[in-house]
Design a protein that fits this description.
With about 130 residues, the chain is an alpha/beta fold. The protein contains six helices and five strands; from the N terminus they run E-H-H-E-H-H-E-H-H-E-E. It has a five-stranded parallel sheet with strand order 3-2-1-4-5, with helices on both faces.
Length: about 130
Amino acid sequence: MNYLLDTHSLLWCVLAPEKLSKKARSAILDSENTAVVSVVTFWEISLKFALGKLELTGLLPENLPAVAQETGLDIITLDVSEAASSYRLPKLTHKDPFDRLIVWQAIQRKLMLISADREFQNYQEYGLRVLW
């Protein structure tokens, strides 16, 4: 199975794995699965860090990609077709552009999204699969 971690799932995975659900932790650690993080997540973290909305103890945003890879996570880029077609994702409860891009990537790439955000469930009818 292939999984995409959303922003809080990545942060918990590398900084506080005990905050992940048992299902999420198991999926990430299973060597038969592929777990990925989008560059969109790193952009969101960097922006929130710069605005003072996110604290990273002993770590800077630019260190996170290497830490993620050391944890066994792969990094995916935002494909131009995903960026250009993201307007097609219905505007339901999520207005955050980072969340919307991550949801769109998960749908387009047929990845199961690892997230504790219950509002993502609203996108299931559009092809989103969520694990928590």
